[in-house]
Write a structure and sequence with these properties.
Its EC number is 2.1.1.182. It is an enzyme of class 2 (transferase). Keywords: Cytoplasm, Methyltransferase, RNA-binding, rRNA processing, S-adenosyl-L-methionine, Transferase. It is found in: Cytoplasm. Helix content is about 40%, strand content about 20%. It is an alpha/beta fold and about 280 residues long. It has 2 domains: about 200 residues, 3-Layer(aba) Sandwich (Rossmann fold); about 70 residues, Helicase, Ruva Protein, domain 3 (Orthogonal Bundle). It is elongated and about 65 Å long.
Length: about 280
């Protein structure tokens, strides 16, 4: 692995702060990620944010094929050179914004015949958006191994009852098993971020433990409940984009066996599913 400082200097580039670019400097970290992710020759990997190739190269050494997505056009030629230098002939570089990539169309167009393994060191400012996109496209994904700023990773793994528990905690718990793989210190990056990072694995279930009759509506209910998380559920739902009268919100909560005075952060996935089912059956 070539030092990112050396590479960027040689190519007369600087990291783009607006893209959240923080490049790994220790080659042991990408190797550890690949090992703990269990990448094997049978895997087709989609890497989000290939950057300078620090993770791409070891992933390519373990996987059957890698599709490396990079949105910064400045880095594409540099990345291609690094892949050529390391003889990574099983990597296809895609210059695209991951938030605009239709994963279903991509899988079909590429002729991929198995669920993807998604991997990447995600920029903080779009991490949540990417996770939502992966949840929506999970029919084409086996698992995702992603690096986030530590505070955000903790929210994704949070359980009911704590302040870290929120909308994405519920969405992930609904459809996946989430676990931590390793922590990466801030001093392992250039430029050095303010806080440490954490690598987590999101392994999608074939079927949710508590399937909702209308998943899209469930996620709208979850979003509404956490939209004003300091309020009681009755008032949060009544004041949300769902436009539910306060009396109807109270009726639905009671019918679902939920005290209207509770707050969103106390509800389990099963309770959110029950609430969405009750609200969905009410006249609108």
């Amino acid at each position: 692995m070539t030092s990112p400082v050396t590479l960027l200097k040689a190519w007369k580039m600087l990291p783009k702060k607006q893209l959240g670019q923080n490049f790994l400097t220790n080659p042991a970290i990408p190797r550890a990620i690949v090992n703990r992710a269990g990448i094997s020759a049978g895997d087709v990997v989609l890497e989000i944010g290939a950057g300078l190739g620090a993770l791409t190269v070891p992933v390519a050494g373990a996987a059957g094929h890698v599709y490396a997505v990079e949105t910064d056009r400045r880095l594409v030629d540099l990345l291609g050179t690094e892949l050529l230098l390391h003889k990574c002939d099983n990597v296809t570089v895609i210059t695209a914004d991951i938030l605009r990539l239709d994963l279903g169309n991509f899988v079909r167009d590429a002729g991929i015949d198995r669920p993807l393994v998604v991997i990447g060191n995600l920029p903080y400012h779009i991490s949540s958006q990417i996770v939502v996109r992966l949840i929506e496209a999970r029919r084409w994904i086996d698992r995702a191994v992603l690096m986030f700023q530590k505070e955000l990773a903790r929210r994704f793994m949070a359980k009911p009852g704590g302040r870290d528990y929120g909308r994405l905690s519920v969405m992930l718990a609904y459809c996946a098993e989430v676990r931590s793989l390793l922590t990466v210190g801030a001093d392992r990056f250039f430029p050095k971020p303010k806080i440490d990072s954490e690598v987590i694995e999101i392994r999608f279930r074939e079927t949710p433990v508590h399937p909702a009759p209308d998943e899209a509506f469930l996620f709208r209910v979850v979003k509404a409940a956490f939209g004003q998380r300091r309020k009681t559920l009755r008032n949060a739902l009544a004041g949300s984009e769902l436009h539910i009268p306060a009396a109807s919100a109270e009726q639905a909560l009671t019918a679902a066996g939920i005290d209207p005075a509770r707050r969103a952060e106390t509800l389990t996935v099963a309770e959110f599913v029950a609430l969405s089912r009750t609200l969905g059956n009410m006249p609108r």
